[in-house]
Design goal:
With 355 residues, the chain is of the alpha/beta class. The chain is built from twelve helices and twelve strands. The structure holds 3-isopropylmalic acid and manganese (II) ion. The site of 3-isopropylmalic acid has 5 residues, from α5.
């Protein structure tokens, strides 16, 4: 049967800016991993992004969505084009994919691979090792709201954070399961704003402690989002797994990326545990570096590691991560674009060879 010949169907959306350059290195490492760990896959490439939109006006056709629903997994480069008004591609492509495929978890590991690249003083590598579980389908990202008296002096803009019991609960359950499976400190911290946002965070807090009763092996904790930012800088070692809503998760994971060494190394997964998930480097399309071969591909390669874990190739996932760690520890001068001491393809080669 065909399905035995080609095991995984991997959709590849390289996207805009430096997306294609980093995705090329990710695929190089994937190929090396496939050979070494003996798994087969097929890649199906899609040219969605700014260029196609500017040429055709099309962002993500319905027919493509139908195809994507049948993939094992999606590998995404970057979304964002200097000639396209901000918001169009983000909403039309990235958020559209997350919502349509019901990828309700955004998983973002924050792990320091080399202490030399940490901006925090007096921290060891083991001090920065936690995971953020960000709700990925609701909250402010639902885009609910309205203008009133637009364009007048009395204008009002309303932006609603929409949280459902089901949406909140499935995210919190995922976070408890994840904390158990991770089996590190077995501690889950809810990051919210119960002191001000007394509707949304009342629901989140109630749900959190209700679900917690089923997970007596997991320690629970709560921190306001502002305090979470403070602790992430001051005492990141306090965190094991953090669960939070869409907007707070977006913000704290950029801070997380910085404490782990920068956007050059930060990857994330948009996960539908029952469906098709999508993995991406979390930095943007970095248009000013496009085509220069100076961008760091490690975030995209770490996204491949997460992708492999998701499809069940755990050994390959671990080998890719270990190889990244080795390269980050022994080769790179910096994790920033243009300062690595190697070009983009050279970094990809190093990781592939080290596998
Ligand atoms: C991210 C990005 C996106 C988000 C943007 C590009 C819509 O910042 O993945 O964190 O806000 O979720
Ligand atoms: Mn973000």
């Amino acid at each position: 049967m065909d399905s035995q010949k080609t095991k995984y169907k991997i959709a590849v959306i390289a996207g805009d800016g430096t997306g294609p350059e980093v995705v090329r290195e990710g695929l190089k490492v994937l190929e090396a991993a496939g050979k070494k760990f003996n798994f087969k896959y097929e890649t199906i490439k899609y040219d969605f992004g700014g260029e196609r939109y500017l040429k055709t006006g099309e962002i993500l056709p319905e027919s493509a969505l139908k195809e994507l629903e049948k993939m094992s997994v999606i590998y995404l480069g970057a979304v964002g084009h200097p000639d396209v008004k901000p918001g169009i591609l983000e909403k039309g492509l990235l958020l559209k994919l997350r919502f349509s495929l019901d990828q309700y978890i955004n998983l973002r590991p924050v792990k320091l691979y080399n202490v030399d690249f940490c901006p925090l003083k007096d921290k060891k590598e083991s001090d920065v090792d936690f995971v953020v579980v960000r709700e990925n389908s609701e909250g402010l990202y639902k885009g609910m709201g309205e203008f009133q008296k637009k364009g007048t002096k009395d204008e009002v803009a309303i932006q609603i954070s929409h949280n459902t019991r089901k949406g909140v609960e499935r995210c919190i359950r995922y976070a408890f399961e994840f904390t158990r499976k991770r089996n590190k400190a077995k501690k889950l911290t809810l990051c919210g704003k119960t002191n001000v946002l007394t509707y949304a965070w009342d629901l989140w807090e109630r749900t959190f402690y209700e679900v917690a009763k089923e997970y007596t092996d997991i320690k629970t904790d709560y921190a306001h989002v502002d305090a979470t930012c403070m602790w992430m800088v001051k005492n990141p070692e306090w965190f094991d797994v953090i669960v939070t809503d869409n907007m707070f998760g977006d913000i704290i994971t950029d801070l997380g990326a910085m404490v782990q060494g920068g956007m050059g190394i930060a990857a994330g997964g948009n996960i539908n545990p029952e469906g098709v998930s999508m993995f991406e480097p979390i930095g943007g399309s970095a248009p000013k570096y496009t085509g220069k071969n100076v961008i760091n591909p490690l975030a995209a390669i770490c996204a491949v590691s997460m992708l492999l874990e998701e499809i069940g190739e755990s050994k390959a996932a671990k080998a890719v991560e270990d190889s990244v760690i080795k390269v980050v520890k022994t080769k790179l001068k910096s994790l920033s674009a243009g300062k690595m001491g190697y070009s983009t393809p050279e970094v990809g080669d190093l990781v592939a060879k080290n596998l």
